[in-house]
């Protein structure tokens, strides 16, 4: 018969591993468990699994290369080209950071036209992603970015 335990200390003091159980002088078979308040069967188990999803760091090296473009400007041209090959789901997760990086590249390289076409192509790619039915729910995120965060004066 199952008892409703209202006093947490009753069950929190019970052993939680086989080793703790044996240290308290009980066998793991459940035969001498009566004084612990319940009968534990040694085959009872549960499994916990976790999935960690970062919204600040990406595992995609191409997108990460673009987001951290200042740390290796020699790879900037390659990173801009590779952006168009990155999974759309990964790009939209980091939409604001990606747009910030693209506009910063444009602003900080204004004396040269080296990256203009690549940045433009990347922006068209991102807008195309958001126009796609799969990512249309990110449209308000893009609109908010344009209204509240966009500040690249050379991009108008």
UniProtKB/TrEMBL annotation:
Protein name, entry field: DOCK1 protein
GO-annotated cellular components: cytoplasm; plasma membrane
GO molecular function, one term: small GTPase binding
Transmembrane portions of the chain: none
An annotated GO BP: small GTPase-mediated signal transduction
Entry's family note: Belongs to the DOCK family.
Organism: Psilopogon haemacephalus (coppersmith barbet)
InterPro entries for this protein: C2_DOCK-type_domain (IPR027007), C2_domain_sf (IPR035892), DOCK (IPR026791), TPR_DOCK (IPR056372)
Classification of source organism: Eukaryota, Metazoa, Chordata, Craniata, Vertebrata
Domain C2 DOCK-type intervals: 1-53
């Amino acid at each position: 018969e199952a008892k409703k335990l209202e006093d947490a200390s009753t069950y929190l003091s019970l052993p939680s591993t086989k080793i703790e159980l044996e240290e308290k002088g009980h066998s793991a078979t459940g035969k001498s468990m009566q004084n612990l308040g319940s009968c534990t069967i040694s085959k009872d188990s549960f499994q916990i699994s976790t999935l960690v999803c970062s919204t600040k760091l990406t595992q995609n090296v191409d997108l990460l290369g673009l987001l951290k473009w200042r740390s290796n400007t020699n790879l900037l041209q390659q990173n801009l080209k590779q952006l168009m090959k990155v999974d759309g789901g990964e790009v939209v997760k980091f939409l604001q950071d990606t747009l910030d990086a693209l506009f910063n590249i444009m602003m900080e390289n204004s004396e040269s036209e080296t990256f203009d076409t690549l940045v433009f192509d990347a922006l068209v790619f991102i807008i195309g992603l958001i126009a796609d039915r799969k990512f249309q729910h990110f449209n308000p995120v893009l609109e908010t970015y344009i209204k509240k965060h966009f500040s690249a004066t050379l991009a108008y």
